[in-house]
């Protein structure tokens, strides 16, 4: 009677190993070797099932299991997709992944390509429903343990920061680290003081940057593990800004936007810090005003009136990437430009004309007399020449005033502007000069 010979189907087994830290990898026999030896022994024990070891090594040393962006793992996944692997063998489940979401995606990929997953020390594989259930339960606990450990580390870190302790990293300019404490570096501390004092004086980060660089100062030089270094270069605008905003210089330690009294000594006094950040507040206010002006730049709106007695409104068009603004009559918008009393007027041209007239009025004899008359009531020693000099100075720096400041003077002086095809008529506020006088009292 003939006999039937069973054919043993070979199952190609790939071993994956991982170690989170690089510590100990230089040793002749390390954790990766131990994982591989255990996996090889397990594969050999399943030789009767047709298990054979593929020659490739899939070892990730110094990589976290929190994500799948690991070179050896990615190479393994490519081989799985290419049909070169039948079984993936690991020492423990968390060697493959500590993330339940990532692991679920890996299992789906294995299933798609008919690849089984086996853990040597936990005695299960994904070919059975019980093995799959046990695997998910185990991985859930593994992820929970990882998250709890991370929370403990974060809590300890935050507690240490609240106590004012330096928790590592590169020290900022002005400090060195000694026995995990920040110690003032006298030479660098002088540079920090110079930066703050210069900014208070110039009110400009760019000007401060120029002064510091002109004096030959450099950023902090940080030694690297490979023997090189970084830093030791000229200061840039963003570097100066970070220094001016760093509360570590007034003796505080920060953590996620919160600041706590530090163990280290401050370099900057609270008075100097307040002056510097008072300047920041002024700049922020100006930027806010300019932002509002950009959103509604046509500041003569409500003051301009056409021959029909109706106020002009604003319009804009964009051509070749540029925006052009106009003042137009309501009739033009309602009935078309052919029926309008005025054509669209360039907003820039009209505004420049009105601003120039306002500048001239600032030096008028009428305003000069009114300012001198009211100022002398407060201080008898103020002469007409002093007032004239102050007003002339304001007129001379008119072009340097911010747009909101010019607009403010226009609003104080002008009540109404009437336009027709041949002329511009400006009606001034009855009490406009008095209002400007009050605005200019600080200049006298």
TrEMBL record:
Gene3D superfamilies (UniProt xref): Putative Large Serine Recombinase, Chain B, Domain 2, Resolvase, N-terminal catalytic domain
Recombinase domain location: 172-286
InterPro entries: DNA_bind_recomb_sf, DNA_bind_recombinase_dom, Resolv_N, Resolvase-like_N_sf, SSR_resolvase
Domain (Resolvase/invertase-type recombinase catalytic): residue spans on this chain: 12-164
Entry protein name: Recombinase family protein
Organism lineage string: Bacteria, Pseudomonadati, Pseudomonadota, Gammaproteobacteria, Oceanospirillales
């Amino acid at each position: 009677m003939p006999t039937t010979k069973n054919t043993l189907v070979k199952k190609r087994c790939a071993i994956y190993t991982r170690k989170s830290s690089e510590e100990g990898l230089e040793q002749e026999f390390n954790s990766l070797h131990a994982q591989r030896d255990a996996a090889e022994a397990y594969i050999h024990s399943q030789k009767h099932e047709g298990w054979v070891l593929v020659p490739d090594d899939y070892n990730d040393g110094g990589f976290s299991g929190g994500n799948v962006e690991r070179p050896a793992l990615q190479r393994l996944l490519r081989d799985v997709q290419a049909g070169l692997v039948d079984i993936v063998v690991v020492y423990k489940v968390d060697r493959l992944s500590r993330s339940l979401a990532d692991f679920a995606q890996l299992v789906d990929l294995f299933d798609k390509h008919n690849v089984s997953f086996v853990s040597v020390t936990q005695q299960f594989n994904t070919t059975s429903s019980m093995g799959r259930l046990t695997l998910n339960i185990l991985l859930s606990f593994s992820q929970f343990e990882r998250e709890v450990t991370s929370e403990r580390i974060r809590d300890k870190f935050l507690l240490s920061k609240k106590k004012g302790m330096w928790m590592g990293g590169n020290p900022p300019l002005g400090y060195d680290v000694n026995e995990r404490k920040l110690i003032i570096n006298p030479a660098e501390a002088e540079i920090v003081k110079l930066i703050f004092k210069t900014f208070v004086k110039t009110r400009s980060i760019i000007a401060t940057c120029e002064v510091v660089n002109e004096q030959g100062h450099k950023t902090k030089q940080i030694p690297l593990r490979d023997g090189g270094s970084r830093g030791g270069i000229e200061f840039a605008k963003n570097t100066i800004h970070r220094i001016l905003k760093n509360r570590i210089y007034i003796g505080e330690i920060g953590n996620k936007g919160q600041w706590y009294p530090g163990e280290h000594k401050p370099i900057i006094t609270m008075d100097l810090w307040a002056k510097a950040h008072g300047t920041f507040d002024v700049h922020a206010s100006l930027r806010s005003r300019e932002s509002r002006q950009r959103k509604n730049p046509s500041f003569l709106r409500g003051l301009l009136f056409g021959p029909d007695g109706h106020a002009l409104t604003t319009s804009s068009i964009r051509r070749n990437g540029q925006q052009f603004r106009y003042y137009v009559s309501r009739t033009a918008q309602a009935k078309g430009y052919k029926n309008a009393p005025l054509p669209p007027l360039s907003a820039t041209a009209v505004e420049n004309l009105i601003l120039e007239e306002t500048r001239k009025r600032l030096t008028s004899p009428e305003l000069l007399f009114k300012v001198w008359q009211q100022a002398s009531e407060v201080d008898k020693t103020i002469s007409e020449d002093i007032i004239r000099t102050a007003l002339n100075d304001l007129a001379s720096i008119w072009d340097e005033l911010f747009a909101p400041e010019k607009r403010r003077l226009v609003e104080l002086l002008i009540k109404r502007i009437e336009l027709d095809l041949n002329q511009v008529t400006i009606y001034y506020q009855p009490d406009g000069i008095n209002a400007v006088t009050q605005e200019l009292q600080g200049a006298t």
